[in-house]
Design goal:
The complex is a heterodimer of chains A (344) and B (194). Chain A is an alpha+beta fold and 344 residues long. Chain A is built from 11 helices and 10 strands. In chain A, strands 1, 2, 3, 4, 5, 6, 7, 8, 9 and 10 form a 10-stranded mixed sheet that branches. In chain A, strand 8 and strand 9 form a beta hairpin. The longest helix of chain A is centred in the N-terminal third of the chain and has 24 residues. Chain A starts with 13 loop residues before the first helix and ends with a helix. Chain B has 194 residues and is mainly alpha-helical. Chain B has 11 helices and no strands. In chain B, helix 9 packs across helix 11 and helix 10 crosses helix 11. The longest helix of chain B has 21 residues. The chains are: A alpha+beta (344), B mainly alpha (194). Chains A and B meet through helix 3, helix 4 and helix 11 of A and helix 3, helix 4, helix 8, helix 9 and helix 11 of B.
Chain lengths: 344, 194
Amino acid sequence: MTSGPSAKPCDRLWEIDAVRAGRLSFAEEASALRHRAICTECRERFDSDERLVALGRELTDGEEVDLLRVRRLRAHILREAATATPQRRPWLRIAFVAVPAMAFAAGVALFARHPTPVAPAAAVATFSPAAVPTFAATVTAPDITHWSQRRNGNSEWVDLENGTAFLEVRKQRTDERFFVELPDGEIEVRGTKFEVTVEEHRTIQIHVVEGVVAFIRPNGDEVVLRANESWRRKEPVAIASAPRPVLSPPPRHAEENHAPRDYEVAMAAYRDGDYTAAGERFSQFLVDHPTSREAEDAAFMEANSAAHAGRSDVAAVLAEKFLKRYPDSFHARDAATLVARGAH
Amino acid sequence: VNAAVRLPKPVVSKIASDASLLAEVADGDLSALGVLFDRHQSCVRRVLRRTGVSNVDVDDLIQATFLELPRIASMFDGRSDSCASWLCGIALRLAARDRRSVGRFLKMLVSFGRSSPQAMAVTPEKVASGREEIGRFADALLALAPKKREAFVMIELEGFSAELVAHALGENPATIRTRLFHARSELRAAVEHE
């Protein structure tokens, strides 16, 4: 807690800003304040920041404002506003833009309804609003992931050959269908957010963030996953013997017993600088304890580990997923930085 | 002549919200503009001064900010009860535009020949009273990149939330927090290690 100048900085320094910004829960804030009371480094940092604020306020506090000048300025502004050329009414400006736009849109619509007769194959290649497919799913995946997306009428497919992909599928209409084609099965969804990992032509892991996912094997076996549920390949027969239709979550008491220990194991790998192993352990932790108290930190640390391991593209995907799931997290700023780094 | 046509309404409720006042401004009510000026000019002035705008230019920027209101008042989304952060955001954007303009650059070159600029109110009394620290702080604040300085002033000195500041400046809240973090680090280093 009390660290000298050469010691490693306290890893709770970030809480000073979080407390000041009111981004901590009551319990977390109380914990941070208790820590600050005994940590010299945090206390000094807090005092230093408070000193900066005091200095900043002192800079202009003594300035005298000439009230007469302010009154004159006020009168001048009101006079200027009164004598200014009247602005065009917004609806008039909107009309200037909207009328030509509507005329153009009507022309495009007429053209789409009565296109120039061409062969069907050529019609697909023609660039027109009617020819551009609008996908129901947004797929986020690193460059190393092999995937493709296609849509035919009201049916859409994402083919995932290898790697990890995060899919966000909008709610499907009654006449729409959406599938994820996997080397060893198929997933059908009605509107959800989930992540799929495929390695060596086998589905390794599925994690559902929102909605319901049905994973259907070629032999007809089906695993239904709901929000915050995961499926991970452990044994070759795990799926075949899994009870239908729901993959039951692990017993609650088991999670409570093992989550802190598993998290600490992953953190130990991270502290040792083995970021690849740390990333894998955090990933496994999220599969085993998706609803634990450490899940939020683990999700961020998984992205952080990938970044330290030099896999900035993977880190960006994981950080983006983290931000979607925990938009108000304390780590949101750091996660946004990881996303930004991945973009470059 | 136009002033006679646009006579201000005789009574504006003292407890009218900023949003309702802005709606009246959008409808051409100048008395509402006056009330908004009385409410927020001091805040806008303070933010401009703290972000390093010289005393000479502050009045011009305040005038430009409030003269923009009849045109853009309808854009206020009522995210906060007070439109102070929104107004400060407009003023800071105008200040940034002013900084970038060529005319401003030439004016600055001319001013170098006349006197040294003193944007902050580091009075001789403050320095003489053993407050070298505040001088170092003022120099460090002026040495900050403008965007970092804006984040520090708006959040730390004015007490606006990062979300409000981000909205006022058209930025992402995470970006504003990052700027604030770096601003604090640079200021801390300047004040403590000099």
